[in-house]
Amino acid sequence: MDTSVSSSSGRRLAGPRGLPVLGSFFPMLSEPLALANKLHARYGDVSLIRVYKTPIAFLRNPVDVKRVLIDEPQTFPKPLIDNPFNGNGLTVSRGDHWKRQRHMVQPLFHKEKVRLWSGIFSEELAKSVERWKEMGARGESFDMYTEGARLMFGVMWRTCFEEQPEIAYFDRIMDAIDVFGRRVSPLSVLLYNLMPRMDPRHERVYTSVKLINGWIYERIGKRRGRGTEDGDITLLSMLVEAKARDSGESMNDKEVRDEIVNLFGASFEMIATSLTWAIHACTQHPEVTQAIRDEVQGVTGGAPPRYEDVAKMPYTNRVVQEINRLCPPAWTILRETASEVEVGGVMLPKGTQLLLCPYAIHRHPDHWKDAETFDPDRFLPERLTGMHKGAYVPFGAGSRICVGQHMSLVDTVQTLAAVLQQLDVEYLGKTPVEWQTRLTFVPKHGMPVRMRARQG
């Protein structure tokens, strides 16, 4: 049986009624992507479910997406989320606090700043490539997601703290990210807000938060104790020294902590995930692998690719863009209605939660031909002409677009280029790959691969 909201035009916004009281709680928690696909297949671009008493509308039409994210953000604000991991950082904050923090944080990820950190990335990438060569020489396989996360752990640790990575922390942080990834994915946060006592991981989450907070606050304290230092390009120092535009005030320790966690966690998870899916796609499409190798050779002449080379590799960039279409890092985006408003011809009451799923948006049949086909050339400039601004939103859109999107794209392209330049990659898992939804869109059973040094 369906549930519905009536529109002024007489059209009904329909969706499954779900269980008494709980509504669609369990499908949302266990299989949100499958639910989104079923809803859009049956009900079209706008559909409705309920969790407890809260209406949740699924949107996938790029016209509605552009309106919500770009044209009218004040009408469709970020919902208030109680998130023990991200605190009140950029990804969850709202209103004046968000504007203040965005002003201070966004300049830290401009291209010239990312270039300053590129040497760190290249060094950590070279270490990882050598590690993977050595593992291959011993006949060992590994999980691509875990190794991609290990790479980004080293990169972000040094970028944030200017210390050599304390690898002993890696396993503990991976465990914490696993908890947080399941607990603070956009959907589970929403569900937890609506029905918090039904989350069995409550205590484990807060134990992990305490662990993470301890080592971050320790480093903030040490940095403040040194005072202002010229030439310090660590992300921690830039956050400590950033000034608000209106008041000239700096962030307090809690605000610095929240932004470190947001930026560290997002970069850690998003880049590792994009790299994992890109590597998998190349193992399934040898012609793509060869095209990337040819391009890298033409640009670097056999030298390891650097930050400056990324812009000279348009095909490899298109591969990553296509990966981010099929497996978008921000696989779902949450907003809510600030007042009663019409969306897609339907009047939605104030407080309706809006769920925009880039996974579904990037497969809209009116905007993407053969949407399930992996085709990097769909991002050729001439084929992008006329693309709707709401049709491709892997990092969100509008004023809240991800501040780290440039860093994510550059790092993923450089890593993919270096791996395929120096290594042969064999995928050892099942096809098709099963996935699960966390902060990002990850393989459910890992991504087992074996890499060997290329000959000749």
Explain this structure.
The chain is 51% helix and 12% strand. It is α+β, with helices and mostly antiparallel strands and 456 residues long. It has one domain (2-453): Cytochrome p450. It has a four-stranded mixed β-sheet. A three-stranded antiparallel β-sheet has the order 5-13-10. Helix 11 (253-284) packs across helix 14 (314-326). The chain is globular, with a radius of gyration of 22 Å.
In short:
It holds the Pfam family p450. With 456 residues, the protein is α+β, with helices and mostly antiparallel strands. 51% of the residues lie in helices and 12% in strands.
Give the secondary structure arrangement, pairings included.
Blueprint: E1 2-6, E2 12-16, H1 25-30, H2 32-43, E3 46-51, E4 54-59, H3 62-71, H4 95-105, H5 111-137, E5 142-143, H6 144-161, H7 168-183, H8 186-194, H9 202-226, H10 235-241, H11 253-284, H12 286-300, H13 307-310, H14 314-326, E6 333-336, E7 341-343, E8 346-348, E9 353-356, H15 358-361, H16 381-384, H17 405-422, E10 423-427, E11 435-437, E12 441-443, E13 448-453
Parallel strand pairs: 4-9
Antiparallel strand pairs: 1-2, 3-4, 5-13, 6-9, 7-8, 10-13, 11-12
Helix pairs in contact: 5-6, 5-17, 6-11, 7-9, 9-11, 10-11, 11-12, 11-14, 11-17, 12-17, 14-17
